[in-house]
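Budget justification aside, the reviewers requested a transparent look at the raw inputs and outputs of the sequence design task funded under Objective 1. We therefore reproduce one unedited record. The lines immediately below are the structure tokens for a 225-residue chain.
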């Protein structure tokens, strides 16, 4: 009879003697804590004295050009790269590779991550699983299928208070990639998302104000409570 240890991979100080390489994916909507979880795992690996490096797409400069920064302003040094193929060169002597905003990378990213894992690297990926229209986003579907471990995190819907699965875009154009935060996107549940897609007045100014305050971007309300 085989015994499975379900707690082996996330919190173990060092799995290098037990397992060579693998892929972990953390996915969800905006404001769900994907990047926070990526930073947490990378810092734990660093505490374990492993060689770590985190990468992000070169186009992501919302908060910093050379750091991965979560929506709550937690940050970790990173290397921006224009194409996933550079990972094979830059991570040649790294034990743990982190990749943020994976949905913005090119279609070669799954193959690159597979090569890294085959070479004994622990690959931790964070990204949006759905785009603003509710469709699978970029290379994320293939990465989710390939990964040994998948963690789906959720934000809270600003309309219903339920778990949010969608990142709904407020205004903007029709381009797939529109970098933004509370000025462009809000987290919605399935029902709220379906309503917002057909009712342009469903998301109100009060809803936007509430999420700005919840994420610390509108400190003026803080003096009223």
């Amino acid at each position: 009879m085989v015994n499975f240890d379900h707690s082996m991979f996330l919190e173990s100080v060092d799995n290098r003697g037990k397992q060579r390489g693998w892929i972990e994916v953390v996915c969800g909507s905006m404001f769900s804590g994907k990047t926070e979880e990526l930073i947490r795992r990378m810092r734990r690996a660093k505490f374990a004295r492993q060689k770590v490096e985190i990468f992000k797409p070169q186009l992501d400069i919302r908060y910093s050009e050379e750091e991965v920064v979560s929506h709550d302003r937690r940050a970790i040094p990173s290397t921006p790269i224009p194409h996933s193929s550079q990972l094979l060169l830059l991570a040649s002597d790294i034990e743990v590779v982190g990749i943020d905003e994976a949905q913005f990378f090119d279609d070669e990213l799954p193959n690159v991550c597979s090569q890294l894992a085959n070479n004994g690297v622990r690959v931790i990926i964070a990204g949006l699983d759905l785009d603003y229209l509710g469709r699978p986003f970029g290379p994320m579907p293939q990465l989710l299928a390939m990964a040994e471990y998948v963690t789906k995190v959720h934000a809270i819907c600003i309309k219903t208070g339920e778990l949010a699965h969608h990142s709904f875009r407020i205004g903007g154009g029709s381009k797939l990639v529109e970098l933004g935060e509370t000025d462009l996107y809000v987290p919605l549940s399935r029902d709220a998302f379906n309503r917002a897609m057909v009712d342009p007045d469903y998301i109100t100014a009060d809803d936007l104000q509430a999420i700005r305050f919840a994420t610390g971007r509108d400190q003026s309300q803080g003096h009223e409570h």
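The first helix runs from residue 34 to 47. The chain has two domains: 22-153, 163-217. Computational costs for records of this kind are itemized in the attached budget.
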